[in-house]
Structures are given as structure tokens and as C-alpha cells.
């Protein structure tokens, strides 16, 4: 057989095979054809879903982009703040694998504040992500966040938040300086004093304003997601300090800087040791992957 004849016969054979396959496809039952397409579509959707980052991973990536750009103590730009806020505002308990019937949130009949559970998601020198799980009446006592920008997102439940910022005394109207502040205490202005109910927007505090010192009280079982940038570090001078607050009138005659009708909005803060009944226990985070 010469080459020309061989090539012609090969082409004829290939065409016959192609026609046979097309005929077999056309003769497939209609249901099988639909089923085949359906399986393929489901497989593609599953693959696409797998490739899409979950909201926790999206939060981590955005935190990594934002906080690694700035030196410790530097407040991120307003646009970067907004990027993180938009993600956190959209988050709920399901995004981190939480439900209100988990053991962390059970009411405990005991004296003092019930224990609080902390779920650790991530921490580096630049930022940390974690969740505080509070049963009813649990309290995170008044404490500060030195040189830190902090995002707090209430995932579910009801929580009372009271926060303060330091304020400096000024001279009186006659130009005379007021007497010095009482020894051991410092004047602070109330920034927030209200109950938050989820779903609600993210609270943000800054190194010098926004309520850098705050206290959380669980009105119901609740969970709050915290992003700290940067996290606490004793080595770098970011030590967590606890405070006791006293009404402005607790030290009568000491200062006259605050007008009589405004004094409800100010308190005296005194450093204290960590409260004995403040008990935080760690637990394994079992929600969607962070990285």
C-alpha cells in the first residue's frame, strides 16, 4: 500500500469513529445528558467556592495588608480603617462558627463575674484577632489600649459598653490655674455609655481618642470579635492597665475646670490590679480557616 492510499484510509477510519461517537451522544437518554451537565456544573461551583476566600480569611488578609504598613502606635489611614470596618460590619456568628447555644455562653450561678472564654484566631507583632465569648452578666473590666487601634464587633447578643478618654485640665475664666488633680487619680471624659444590640456597626478606638479605655458588660450571652493593631506587648511598653472609676464629685473642691452641668460626663480613674474575679480561659477556635 502506498503512502497516499494509507493516509486516505486513515482519514476515512477517523471520520467513521467520530460519527459513531456523535451518534452515541445523541442517543443518550435526555435525563442522562441533563444529569451529566448538572454534575459538571456542581463540580465547577464547588471548585469556585473552594477558591473564594471566606470572610475570616478576607479579614486576616486585609489586617495583614493594613497593619504591616504602619509602625506600632501609628493610626492607619481613614481608607484603611474603612476597609477593615466594612468587612467587620458584615460579619455575624456563623462566619466564625459560633452559635448562642455553645457551652461558652451558658449562664453560671456563682458569685462575681462568670468566666469568659477567649478564642484565639491569630497574633503577630503587628496585629491580633480573637473572640471573647461572654455568658450573661460577665464583665471585662475597665482597661486601656496603649498606642493601639482597636476594632470591636459585637457578633450577637446585647452588651453594655462604657468608655473613656483622658482629658487635660484647663485654666478658669479668670486665667488662674486650678488646683492640681488629686493624687493617684486622673480625670477622664466619658465617650460611650450605652447598650449595643447585635447586629450593629463596629466600634473603633484609637491611641488617644474614641474611648481608649473601656469596660464591657454582657446583658445577655454575647460574643465580640476584637482586632488589635498592634497587640499588647510588655516588651514594647504596651501593658494592659486596669482602672477603677470614681464619679467627678468624689473629690469635691479639688478642681473647678468642669462646669457644674457637665460633671456627669467626667470621672476620676485610678490604676488598680487586675480584678480577682476577672477570669478568662482559652479555647480552641473551630471556625473557618484564618489563613
TrEMBL record:
CDD domains: cupin_ADO (cd20289). It comes from the Eukaryota. GO terms for biological process: detection of hypoxia. Its EC number is 1.13.11.20. It catalyses: L-cysteine + O2 = 3-sulfino-L-alanine + H(+). One of its GO terms (molecular function) is cysteine dioxygenase activity. It holds the Pfam family PCO_ADO. Its cofactor is Fe(2+). InterPro entries: PCO/ADO (IPR012864), RmlC-like_jellyroll (IPR014710), RmlC_Cupin_sf (IPR011051). Keywords: Iron, Metal-binding, Oxidoreductase. Belongs to the cysteine dioxygenase family. PANTHER family: 2-AMINOETHANETHIOL DIOXYGENASE, PLANT CYSTEINE OXIDASE 1. This is cysteine dioxygenase. It comes from Aquilegia coerulea. The lineage of its organism: Eukaryota, Viridiplantae, Streptophyta, Embryophyta, Tracheophyta.
Amino acid at each position: 500500500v502506498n503512502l497516499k492510499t494509507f493516509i486516505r484510509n486513515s482519514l476515512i477510519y477517523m471520520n467513521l469513529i467520530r460519527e459513531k461517537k456523535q451518534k452515541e451522544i445523541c442517543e443518550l437518554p435526555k435525563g442522562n445528558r441533563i444529569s451529566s451537565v448538572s454534575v459538571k456544573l456542581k463540580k465547577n461551583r464547588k471548585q469556585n467556592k473552594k477558591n473564594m476566600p471566606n470572610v475570616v480569611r478576607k479579614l486576616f488578609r486585609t489586617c495583614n495588608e493594613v497593619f504591616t504598613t504602619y509602625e506600632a502606635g501609628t493610626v492607619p489611614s481613614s481608607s484603611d480603617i474603612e476597609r477593615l470596618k466594612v468587612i467587620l460590619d458584615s460579619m455575624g456568628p456563623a462566619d466564625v462558627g459560633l452559635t448562642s447555644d455553645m457551652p461558652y455562653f451558658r449562664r453560671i450561678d456563682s458569685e462575681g463575674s462568670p468566666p469568659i472564654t477567649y478564642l484565639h484566631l491569630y497574633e503577630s507583632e503587628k496585629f491580633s484577632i480573637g473572640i471573647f465569648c461572654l455568658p450573661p452578666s460577665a464583665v471585662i473590666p475597665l482597661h486601656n489600649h496603649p498606642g493601639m487601634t482597636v476594632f470591636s464587633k459585637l457578633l450577637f447578643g446585647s452588651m453594655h459598653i462604657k468608655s473613656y478618654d483622658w482629658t487635660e485640665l484647663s485654666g478658669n475664666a479668670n486665667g488662674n490655674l486650678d488646683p492640681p488633680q488629686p493624687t493617684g487619680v486622673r480625670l477622664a471624659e466619658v465617650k460611650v455609655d450605652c447598650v449595643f444590640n447585635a447586629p450593629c456597626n463596629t466600634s473603633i478606638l484609637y491611641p488617644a481618642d474614641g474611648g481608649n479605655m473601656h469596660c464591657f458588660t454582657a446583658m445577655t450571652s454575647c460574643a465580640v470579635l476584637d482586632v488589635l493593631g498592634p497587640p499588647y506587648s510588655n516588651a514594647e511598653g504596651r501593658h494592659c492597665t486596669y482602672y477603677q472609676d470614681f464619679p467627678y464629685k468624689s473629690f469635691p473642691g479639688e478642681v473647678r475646670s468642669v462646669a457644674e452641668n457637665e460633671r456627669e460626663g467626667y470621672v476620676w480613674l485610678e490604676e488598680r490590679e487586675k480584678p480577682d474575679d476577672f477570669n478568662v480561659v482559652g479555647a480552641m477556635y473551630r471556625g473557618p480557616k484564618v489563613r
